[in-house]
Amino acid sequence: MAERPTLVDPPIEDLLHKVGDSKFTLVAVSAIRAREINDYYNGLGSGHGALIPPQVSSLSNKSLSLAMEELYEGKLQFHRPTPEELEAERLDEEAREQARLDAANDLDAFTDALRDV
Q: Which of 116, 7, 103 is nearest to 60 (CA)?
């Protein structure tokens, strides 16, 4: 039996295997990279050199297609944080917020002391 042609090249099934069979991860990673590609093209000529150009040669001019082709060819990598990394980040954010609150309380105490003088 002949294989059916698909509208999506590279095939979605192959892309899913690249991201651990998660449709959400495929959409998120591709969308983030597509936005970066759009930003690159929109910023050409403005002197911004921090943006990474497309990493594949393609006939497509659509940023999402370019992002998926980069993923398919192994040019696009991503890191899924572990639960330990997420917990460490949460604790770090809590510590920074507590430090900010402590500094605000210290300032309040200082201004109260100045009023009492």
A: 7
